[in-house]
Amino acid sequence: MRSDRGKVSIRTWCLKWISRSFSQYGLFILLMLSLLAIWETIVRMGWVPSFIIPAPTAIASSLIEHRRLLLSIHLPATFMEVLVGFGLSIVTGIMLATGMHMNRSIEKAIYPFIVISQTIPLIALSPVFILWFGYTLWSKVAVVFLIAFFPIVVSTYDGLRQGDPEQRELLLTMGANKWDIFRKLQVPLALPSFFSGLKMSVVYCVVGATIGEWLGGSKGLGYFSRRMSSNMNTDAMFAAILLLSLLGIVLFVLIAWLEKRFSIRRHESKRKVG
Length: 274
Description:
The chain is an all-alpha fold. Helix content is 86%, strand content 0%. The longest helix has 43 residues, at 2-44.
């Protein structure tokens, strides 16, 4: 009896989720399906050679054919590079942004270097990282970190600077010190900018991991797509690209979900205090 109720509740939740998703993204879903149908038709009619752009059904078939290799070896390798690089980017970004906000001298000394780090092409630095770290995880993590920490630093630093002067003066009159103002006023106001930086950074992490694997890797989705490209196996190459895109989308949605949950809890705590 309980199992039947559980099945009904799960089915009801799934139907509600599908209905809610279609109401929000119905136009996107219809447009995507239309584009896929047009894409399939163009390739099937021979207007575009399949070795240049394979049909969506051919990509799906290749994904199924190579599912064990892609899902058990290359996807976990890329995910690990993204995860480690993203974690290091978060820690470093928060520390640098906080330090620059707290100390003007640190900002003047470090901020130009942060900007300069983004002007150097990653393609030029990747061989250097391979020379330093070899064909290991850390050569790819270095590329991921270099491309991903910048949005977190800039967005967090800009968010910390958005403190309300009136609220700051109010806290000062109530006897708050610099740390109290930072913790109770500036950090909460910086959270929207911080999460925006996280959402940009996590997508850049996937790009950085792909670049690192392309230039010097022995496994990963970027390495697999490069190998398939050299073999003119465009179906498998696009299958790897599809997984890379899905990985970026899932990570982006996860950060957006965390942002929403954190915002709900924050509003609930404000109501309780009020």
